[in-house]
Amino acid sequence: MLNVILCGAPGSGKGTQSDLLVKNYGLQHLSTGDLLRAEIKSGSQLGKQIEDLIAKGNLVSDHTMIHLIENFLDNLSPDCKGIIFDGYPRTVDQAEALTLMLKRRKMNAVMLDMYVDEDEIIKRLLERGKVSGRTDDNFETIKQRLKVFHEVTKPVCYYYLTRHNYFAINGNNTVENTFAQIDTILKLVQK
Ligand code: ADP
User: Is residue 145 lining ligand 1, measured as CB closer than 6 Å?
Assistant: First the structure.
């Protein structure tokens, strides 16, 4: 299996590159943001709590997230070629939990860290906000999401870096150029 963790600030292009990975590598896309938005849509009690956190640009609890991922892995189809973790892990505790969950299933994963300049990120998210209908794509919430990213999520990159399981991608590029970098790395990883 080829399991890929996509890390990067909000608006760094994780969703776009995930679509290309699905198309070119046949991987299964796990977007925690999409899963959480589906939970909100279901109208459940948990969904209501999540809605409030997301609207403020804060993270959902590690406990909830780890449970969600464990559940996803338990229901994985036996012919799954690999998973794209898009939006998970976002904290070091989530990363440690993922290492254990994968180890128990004799699986592993590589991290691709997508770097994009902050002014470009803000521009992209504000642009997306005009059509996405997402409550968190507004200037105030974007600022908070970026703060959380730098303080809480960036250390996750170093977690993988110190485990020699980390690759940096320059996302200040066209979609094609960014995917070309990913493609080169994944071909080498699979050798
Ligand atoms: P983006 O990458 O643009 O911030 P996502 O769709 O990945 O958007 O996530 C939207 C929101 O969902 C996050 O701001 C956060 O509140 C919540 N979320 C998603 N994944 C996680 C996670 N692994 N841990 C905690 N909260 C999460």
Answer: yes
Q: Locate the ligand 1 atom nearest the alpha carbon of residue 34 and give its number.
A: 6
CA distance 31 to 26: 15
Nearest atom in ligand 1 to 53's CA: 16
Q: Is 60 in the pocket of ligand 1 (CB under 6 A)?
A: yes
pTM (2 d.p.): 0.94
Find out whether the beta carbon of 54 lies less than 6 Å from any atom of ligand 1: yes
Task: Write out the two tokens for 76.
Answer: 């994985």
Report yes or no: 166 and 157 within 8 Å, Cβ to Cβ.
Answer: yes
Q: Which of 136, 144, 150 to mutate to test the pocket of ligand 1 (most atoms within 8 A of CB)?
A: 136
Give residue 191 CA to ligand 1 midpoint distance, Å. 32
- Per-residue pLDDT of 137-160, as tens digits, reads 999 999 999 999 999 999 999 999
CA distance 83 to 61: 22
pLDDT at 191 over 90: no
| pLDDT tens per residue, range 111-129 | 999 999 999 999 999 999 9
In angstroms, the CA 170 to CA 149 distance is 17
Residue 56 CA, chain-centre distance (Å), reads 19
List domains and CATH numbers for the chain. 4-186 (3.40.50.300)
